Each structure stands twice: as C-alpha cells, then as structure tokens.
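Retro notes, structure queue

What went well: the backlog is down to a handful. What didn't: a couple of records were mislabeled last round, so from now on we paste the full input next to the output in the thread. Example, using Probable transcriptional regulatory protein MC7420_8040 from Coleofasciculus chthonoplastes PCC 7420:
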Amino acid sequence: MDAAKGKTFAKLSREIIVAARSGVPDPNGNFRLRTAIEKAKAAGIPNDNIDRAIAKGSGQFDSGSDNLEEIRYEGYGPGGVAILIEALTDNRNRTAADLRSAFTKNGGNLGETGCVSWMFEQKGVVTVAGEVSEDRLLEASLAGGAETYEWIEDDEEPGVEVVTEVTNLEHLNQTLQDQGFSVCDAELRWIPGNSVEITDPDVARSLLKLMDALDELDDVQNVTANFEMADDLVSLTMA
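Corresponding output:
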C-alpha cells in the first residue's frame, strides 16, 4: 500500500509540475494547475509537497523538471485492443523501452504515432458525485455547454459524468459548481469511438495484465483503451 501511495504521489506531483510550468503558477489563474492540486489534496498529498511541486514547475529552483515532457504513445493489446498512453518523462528512450517491454511480455505491441489515436477523441469530462436530479442536471448541462452525460452505474458511489469540448471544460466545471452540484473531478479524457468486446478468458487475462503493467510504470500518467469486458470475466481473470 505504501508503494502504491508513493507512486500515486509521484504521478500527481509531476502533473502539478507540468501544469505550473505550462501556465501561471497561481491556481486561481491556471485551471489545469487548480484541478491537479485538487486531485493531489484528495489523494492526501501534504501541502508542503504540493507547494514544492509548484515551485519546481515555476522554476523557483533548479530541479530538473525542465526536462519533463509530455508524450503520447500508442499500441495494440491482446484481441486487437487499441491503447493510448500519456506519459511525462525526462528520458524518451527509457520510457519507450519500458513500454515496449510491457507490451511484448503481455501479448501486445507498441505502435507508431497515429496508429490508434484516430479511434479516440479527446473530451472534457466533469464528474458529479451522489444522487442527481436529471431535470436539474439537464438544465445545468445546457447552461454549461455540455454535449452529453452518462450515469455512473455504482450503487455505493453513484454519480454522473458530463462531457463537453476540451476548450469548454473550465466553463462547464464552474457552471456545475455554481449550481450546487458536488463536482469531484474535472479532466481531459480520451474517449473511444468504438469498443472491442473481450469474451475469451485468456485474452482478458493477458489484457488486464498489460494494463496493470503499463499503469505501474513510473513515467506513465494515464492509460486508455477501447475494450469492454463483463464484470464476471474480470473477476474470473483476477481469481
């Protein structure tokens, strides 16, 4: 658990560094930085660590963070599943080698830029927690310029994901908050245009192992894939 917590801290800290570097180091004037800080606080990262990451990103002291760059990698997993990986790295060769190894060991292959990204579209997604009145949600979504919304099917943690254009994410997020909704996340997300249904247990097992292997790499920030899998198959492969 400590190792997993440390990895989460590192990923969120790198996101803060890059967000602070890409705009003003003040969260009030930098939406990306503000959302990164909110995620970090929700994960329990101490304020001192957050302040240090902002200072690194804004260049207040030499930390090597200037070498961090955002890179998107693409590949195929078992069953022909398309996979997008977003990474923050200071060494492209190391990151590519680590990714290639993870793909190869788990029945996939790292592809060239553009090989699967055409299957995805980047959108802004605001997540609202709790039971929500659809009439209120529809009214607020229209006011905020949302395109669509989708209910989260979870009895323990119900909610809804509201989708909009990338450039409208901040406006939608603020509109939903102003209208009293409990916003728990606002992020950019790659959404697949079509999905591959996985039904074979062996393919499912290899695919989930690959997803875990990619997610565990230090340089990887996010992994997105275009597959669907029944819950009982997920349980079976994890047994």
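Agreed that this is the format going forward. Reviewer comment attached to the example: The two ends are 20 Å apart (CA to CA).
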